[in-house]
Amino acid sequence: MPPSPDKKRVLFVDDDADVLRGLRNLLYNDRARWEMVFAADGATALELVRERVFDVVVSDMRMPEMDGASLLTQVRTESPITARIMLSGHADREAIMRAVPVLHQLLNKPCDGATLRAAIARGCEDGLERASRLRAAIAGVDHLPSPRSQLAALASAIERSSTPTSEIVCLVEHDPSVAAKLLQLVNSSYFGIGRTSSIVEAVSILGIDLVRNIAATLTTPLDHEPVPEMPLAQLSVSAARVASIVAEIVGVHTPHARAASVLRDIGCSLLATNLTDEYRAAIAGWRGGDESIVQVEERVLGTTHAEVGARLLTLWGLPDELVEIVRYHHAPDRVRESLRVVTSVIHVVDSVVHPGARLDRDALARAGVADHVSGWLEIARRELDATA
Fold it and tell me: In percent, how much of the chain has pLDDT > 90?
């Protein structure tokens, strides 16, 4: 019987037959949900990718003739919708840095079954048609845009040996693209620290040299906004700072809160740079009508920047709590109870920072924070005025 067309396809690539046999045995019970294919070298893997669509490719790093970095680079070109996962030992650190631009998730080798299953599941979980241009935009992204001035400030601070780490962290927190790439890398099992939303911890673990390399090679310098009507760089810096202050005042200043305030609109950056014309149309419709930004995005694009951002962060392996806040920062009543206050704070700050943004008081009431909204608005406006 042929496999179901709805079943997700996963391709495993390793030149060691014993490793492939071990993976087959490890994931034997998953064959009902995943169609699993095994290839012994990169050339064979590429032939398979050209013949059919794979939702996920899991490749070893060290292979003769074509290593994992080269393979996944070509997979990105041949099939941009495919999630790309690499397995590697710590001895491969230099090669890993070469592979980082084309990776979605980096797993330590050997990898336990639970970690591997979770990584594959994140790669499969997008809810979009395989032929969707949006799916290709999410999975195919490797460089996110950053203001050239912000990247220059970070590079300058790093080059000064006297710059305290706290200043580096502050500059990273003002750049969603750099922050997202740091959290993507530090949350890989390769570093063995578990899941974290802490940008402070990410900078500390990865080190200043790696922060420099990521900022220089994994971001795209922007001299101007791709959608001028939505000045993302300016809004991101303002909202991240204000949300962080409000969250601290109301007592929910957790790493999840801090990171979510930085990354909440990362989906806007992806849409503005990859689907520019469609996103301009959505912004124009929002500016000229009575609908909220997410209502217009859903109508014009079939999805929202919050959903796109959440899918990207899921694909990159960031913590579930952080992903959930980003996904529902315009609908704070839909998150789990433990995250409702911090998500509500970010929603309130969003309405203050973004010109024309709407405060969903009904959602805030359902989230159980209606009595606090006026106070939060006052704090947010005061802090925003202080930076004007």
Answer: 48
